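Q: What structure does this chain adopt?
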Amino acid sequence: MGPAMRILAIETSCDETAAAVIEDGRRILSNVVASQIDLHARYGGVFPEMASRAHIEAIVPVIREALVKAHVGWRDLHAVAVTRGPGLAGSLLVGVNAAKGIALGRDLPLLGINHLEGHIYAHWLETESEGAADPDALEFPLLCLIVSGGHTELVLMQDHGRYQRLGGTRDDAAGEAFDKVGRLLGLPYPGGPAIERVAQKGDPARLRFPRAWLEGSWDFSFSGLKTAVLRVVRGYGEAGPDGRPPRQAPIPHLAAAFQEAVVDVLAEKTVQAAAAYQAKAILLAGGVSANRRLREEVKSRAGDIPVYYPPIFLCTDNAAMIGAAAYYRFQAGQRDGWEMDVVPNLRLV
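A:
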């Protein structure tokens, strides 16, 4: 065994300013996240220009804190990794420019990482969490369901860095649907945790929302479901001040029925794809993978196929997952030049 390899990782793809120091792609020496949720909650969603300004203010303190918490100095680092896409262009630029400056100033290799690949590699970080995978025991192929605010993707991972995209959303991602329906129900941003919390008090069987199965494909669609919720809410009467739902609307039942419709399609398609491609395990990744109903349903339907999900702090956007992905990219020989740019619509495959 050679000396440990430490990577400083930076993540600024949306509304989280994050930095982490990761050792050998597995150990989290530090993982610092400055959230902008309170800033954007006033508006019910992320304002790109405000997000990039907040990143500019937070990026240096967050990186400094990551180094301090990891008990390392600049000389202890072996590379700098950063999310280059997908994400908001202005937000991505803050992280990429910071990473370039550090790499240039400290003469360190620079690696641009795909945010979606980062979500997958959260599973290779060592944690004590229930449901987390043992990184040493993971065997390929793996079926990955990436569900976050802007993405819903089914990906077959055939080896490190080798992916086959099976399907994805044709319109709204699952996380977007949660946020939009959350606003319809008068719930705070972000919609996912708010709907999950309220749904616990509701009966999902009280209402039945449609499922878009899109037979013959591994794709998803949640736009029609969102419209169905809107029609039902309007059926209870006129919206109140500030667009709040009518008083008569049974918010917990609506939330529970909506969540059930999303989870039903995500779980069923994921399990069917895993069986069809003989996956050795199912990996849930991205912010929506923190949803307990989704975890429960995938596990209950998967039969003998193991199902893994990271702890909640590694489901939402963070830099530790970027550092884990970067380690494997570094080992495969990736090095990026100063001309590397952000790619807001960067694809995994």
